[in-house]
Amino acid sequence: MTDATQTVLGRTNYIWLSKGFFMGRRCLDSDSPADLHGMWYPTVRRTLVCLSRLYRCVDRPIFQGLSQEALTMCIQSVASAAQAISNKKSPTDGELFQIKHLLILREQIAPFQVDFTIKEMSLDFSKVKTAAFGLLHKRKRLFSLGTNNALLEFLLEGTPTVREQLVDSRKEVDKQLKASCEAFIQHTTKTLAGPLLTFLDRGQVFVSMQTEVAGNVTLAQQPFAHADVIGKIVQETQRLIKNQLPIIQRSMQLYLANRETEFILFRPIKNNVVASFVQLQQLLAGGGYTSDDLLLAGCPSPEQVTVLLSSASLLGTNQVSNTTTTVVEEELHT
């Protein structure tokens, strides 16, 4: 390693550790929409700028180690910031903030023609603990002169083992992105169809118990599943879709600013909501409900739910320029 490289590495470590490199609290404390929606989080911007400069002035093996360390800390910083935003504003804001910046990270590190995989060495002390317990139980053999000497067995069996682990920063970004998208999809589905999902869980529990215990009791006879109660649940779910979906889609547009990304991310949410109404129809069909009960429940068809989602989506649509290339689709299907 040359003196120049050592100087660069020393300066890099100094900046990372002493300048609050991986902190962006001032951005989080701001109430300006531009700070959360329009700009890159300072940690992400600094990391990418630093890596782009190091890429041109250090050898590849050195860059691989530095990039792995920088990306790991950057991902942790983004996750901490997302949690802080969730606490301060809403879980939707926190999840979209994290998705946005993980997409940026994944896109911006793609041009680096290096392998982001490094080998980490660690010591496994699990055998030491087991051997120590064995030594306590064999105290009478501590000074034995034979091969069954407890202290000798402890030294032989309690030696920590060296473990090798391959760490791939690019795959870690993909993993965190997939987890963030799945968390957003699950949370948004619950926001839009929470009352219906709760009823479906109770209904499925009753049906499973009904199959285990023979009897003539039907779902329609249960107080929580009367037709008028289901009708109120359906109306409440439809109201949530009309009121909450435009808000969620506006947030998606503010953070992601890419129609294709928004469409890909919203598609599984739409499918989940439609599937929940299909599941309700199946429960009603086998729950002993009369034709009058079905009219009172007012469960919409999948086509009607799709129209409702589409009309509610139009209310939250506005013109946002496309600025971020997305890979959400491949992440959701891996």
Key words describing this protein structure:
mainly alpha, two-stranded antiparallel sheet, 71% helix, 334 residues, 14 helices, single chain
Summarize the structure.
By secondary structure, the chain is mainly α. The protein has helices spanning 3-18, 25-29, 33-38, 42-55, 60-88, 91-109, 126-137, 150-157, 169-212, 227-256, 259-285, 291-297, 302-315, 328-332, and strands at residues 117-124, 161-168. The chain is 71% helix and 5% strand.
Describe the secondary-structure layout.
Layout: H1 3-18, H2 25-29, H3 33-38, H4 42-55, H5 60-88, H6 91-109, E1 117-124, H7 126-137, H8 150-157, E2 161-168, H9 169-212, H10 227-256, H11 259-285, H12 291-297, H13 302-315, H14 328-332
Antiparallel strand pairs: 1-2
As for the number of domains, it is 3
Order of helices and strands: HHHHHHEHHEHHHHHH
Question: Rough shape?
Answer: flat
Overall average pLDDT: 78
Q: Uncertain spans, ≥5 residues at pLDDT below 50? A: 318-328
| Biggest pleated-sheet summary | 2 strands, antiparallel
Q: What structural category characterises the helix and strand content?
A: mainly alpha
The tally of helices reads 14
Please indicate the percent range of residues in DSSP E strands (runs of 2 or more): under 5%
Number of strands: 2
Distance between the termini: 40 Å
- Radius of gyration, CA atoms, in whole angstroms: 28 Å
